[in-house]
Structure to design on (213 residues):
């Protein structure tokens, strides 16, 4: 997907995808990942989600990747932090107390740049990417995080009724990407009241991805 699409969305404040509350699925299910006290949680394509603040208040450390510097400027303002900013090649590192956000192309990030990851929280990354990018993304995410356990939120709906993003990524596709490396548990699947964007019926799927034994 053209990066300009997301830059324009943030710069024009066309961010209906940004939730104005902490995601209830995060608060219900994150403990299932057993990230441990002070564990480091990676959020791909994180935006300025309020979920980051919740994770910090729970004692976790946060690392994230985001394309838009506008989003991350707003995130640190929201957190009442003044970040230190360092250029790391093509990626810009914003650092604060317990938090590291890498601004740029997620595919330019490496395990060496990101550092240790105890858990991944994919709230809206997989569903933000078109089909031709999702296989590359999932392979890169696993490599970058050493296959850390994941809490994954996805959507399932009739893709012919609405153009993404967010795209429809049903459980069957999640399994295609991850089943070779993780034990996948569907924690819940709930219908979205009023449908997705009020356009078509849809379900939100919450999965736990645990390292396969």
């Amino acid at each position: 997907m053209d990066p300009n699409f997301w830059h324009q969305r943030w710069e024009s404040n066309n961010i209906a995808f940004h939730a104005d509350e902490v995601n209830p699925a995060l608060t219900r299910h994150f403990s299932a990942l057993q990230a441990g006290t002070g564990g480091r949680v990676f959020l791909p394509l994180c935006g300025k989600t309020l979920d980051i603040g919740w994770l910090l208040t729970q004692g976790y450390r946060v690392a994230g990747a985001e394309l838009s510097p506008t989003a991350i400027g707003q995130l640190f303002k929201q957190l009442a932090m003044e970040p230190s900013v360092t250029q790391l090649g093509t990626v810009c590192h914003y650092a604060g107390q317990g938090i590291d956000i890498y601004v740029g192309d997620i595919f330019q990030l490496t395990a060496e740049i990101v550092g240790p990851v105890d858990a991944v929280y994919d709230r809206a990354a997989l569903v933000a990417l078109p089909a031709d990018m999702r296989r590359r993304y999932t392979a890169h995410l696993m490599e970058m995080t050493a296959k850390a356990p994941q809490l994954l939120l996805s959507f399932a709906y009739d893709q012919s009724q609405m153009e993404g993003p967010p795209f429809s990524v049903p459980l069957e596709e999640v399994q295609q990407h991850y089943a070779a490396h993780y034990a996948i548990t569907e924690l819940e699947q709930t219908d979205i009241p009023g449908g997705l964007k009020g356009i078509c019926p849809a379900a939100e799927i919450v999965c736990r991805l645990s390292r396969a034994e």
In short: The radius of gyration is 16 Å. Strands lie at 40-43, 61-66, 84-88, 91-96, 99-103, 119-122, 150-157, 182-191, 202-211.
